[in-house]
Amino acid sequence: MRCYTTYLTFNTRKRQEIVDITAEVEKCLAASGIREGFILVSAMHITASVFVNDHEPGLWQDILDWLEERIAPWSPDSYRHNSGTGEDNAAAHLRSLTVGHEVIVPVTEGKLDLGPWQRVFYGEWDGRRPKRVVLKAMGQ
User: Fold this and answer.
1) What span, in angstroms and rounded, lies between the C-alpha atoms of 132 and 42?
2) Contact, 94 vs 5, CB < 8 A?
3) Are 39 and 135 in contact (CB under 8 A)?
4) What pairing do the DSSP bridges indicate for beta strands 131-139 and 102-108?
5) For 31-84, what is each residue's pLDDT tens digit?
6) How far is it, in rounded angstroms, from Cα 28 to Cα 34?
7) What's the 3-state SS for the chain?
């Protein structure tokens, strides 16, 4: 089995943002030479996520609204984490837990084996500083 690892660095313009990283995952796969296996895509920060979904800006706004209105409102005074650390990003930690921090994408015949509408996304929930994602292709 072969392994190939690379890293992406994000410095988002907004505190919360969704970024399509499918092309970067495909570049990692091409560089790896792997034809059969999988790629692990994992956010290396506790206030970010990686997920698979549809590339549709209306859905992205729905996700952001869902996180804000139903999962973890950005209300710094409401969280013990914020009062204990002096930070204001407890909601970002909870959003990361909800959406998840990694995905495994199958590789078949040298291509990402995604459904017709599926893409790989990085979700930034507490941006404005460099964040990393590890891409690890494994297979043969």
Assistant:
1) 9
2) no
3) yes
4) unpaired
5) 999 999 999 999 999 999 999 999 999 999 999 999 999 999 999 999 999 998
6) 10
7) CEEEEEEEEECCCCCCEEEECHHHHHHHHHHHCCCCEEEEEEECCCCEEEEEEECCHHHHHHHHHHHHHHHCCCCHHHCHHHHHHCCCCHHHHHHHHHHCCEEEEEEECCEECCCCCEEEEEEECCCCCCEEEEEEEEEC
- Residue 66 sits at φ, ψ, to 5 deg, of -60, -45
Whole-number Å distance between alpha carbons of 83 and 51: 30
Angle at 92 between CA 39 and CA 124, to 5 degrees: 45
Is this structure's pTM higher than 0.85?
Answer: yes
Rg (CA), the chain: 16
- Token look-up 């959003």 returns 95
Contacts of 34 (CB under 8 A, 6+ apart): 2, 4, 107, 110, 137, 138, 139, 140
